[in-house]
Amino acid sequence: MLKRLLVMAILAVFAVGTGYADQSKTKVTIPVNKTAPTSGKQMYTNYCTPCHGVDGKGHGQYAPMLKRQPADLSMLSSNNRGRFPETHIYSALQFGSAVAPSGAGEMPVWGPILGKMNQTNPQEVLLRISNLSRYLETLQLK
After folding, report:
1. CA 90 – CA 87 distance, rounded (Å)
2. In a 10 Å sphere around its CB, with 0-12 CB exposed, 13-18 middle and 19+ buried, how is residue 39 labelled?
3. Among 124, 108, 95, 7, CA closest to 50
4. Closest CA relative to residue 107, chosen from 44, 37, 51
5. CA distance linking residue 8 with residue 94, whole number of Å
6. Helices (H) and strands (E) in the chain, counts
7. Rounded to an integer, what distance in angstroms lies between the CA atom of residue 13 and that of residue 115?
8. In this structure, how many other beta carbons lie within 10 angstroms of the beta carbon of residue 85?
9. What is the distance between the alpha carbons of residues 67 and 46, in angstroms, rounded to a whole number?
10. To which H or E segment does residue 115 belong?
């Protein structure tokens, strides 16, 4: 459980660290408002929906401004032989994505940003990443 939370925290810190997708001439800034660490849905809505869209298919309001289409988060399990890639999600949230959706920069690194929301409780980052990952799992197409 602690390993799972740690991996999720690391993923979140990575994704939040950037805070925006760097474009050649345009910068896309994702507003970062504090959300409840217990609500994966609220975090997804605030932090992920702008690029990935409400359904996770990569059609958020900022997606047209990016050089590369954001990942279709609803297909994570399908693209991983029917198994939700929890460790990969934790890593992407904490440290960012290996594929740069904007062409010039990586997906926002959310881990450091989520970590700054409550510096008195480092476990909260892990809780945030865990709950966000669990919510992403609910978006998977069957």
Report:
1. 5
2. middle
3. 108
4. 51
5. 7
6. 6, 2
7. 6
8. 17
9. 22
10. helix 110-116
The pLDDT assigned to 48 comes to 92
Which tokens in the block code for residue 95?
């440290």
DSSP string, 10-69: HHHHHHHHH-EEE-SS-EEE-------TT-HHHHIIIIIHHHH-TTSSS--TTGGGSSSP
Among all chains, which residue has been given the structure tokens 């809505």?
45
- Provide the 3-class DSSP secondary structure of residue 78: helix
Query: pLDDT tens, 34-78?
Result: 888 899 999 999 999 999 999 999 999 989 988 888 999 999 999
Sort residue 82 into left (φ over 0), alpha (ψ -120 to 50) or beta. Answer: left
Two structure tokens written together for 83? 């198994």
Cα gap 136→43, rounded to integer Å? 10
Q: What three-state secondary structure class fits 107?
A: coil
Identity of the residue numbered 59: H
pTM: 0.71
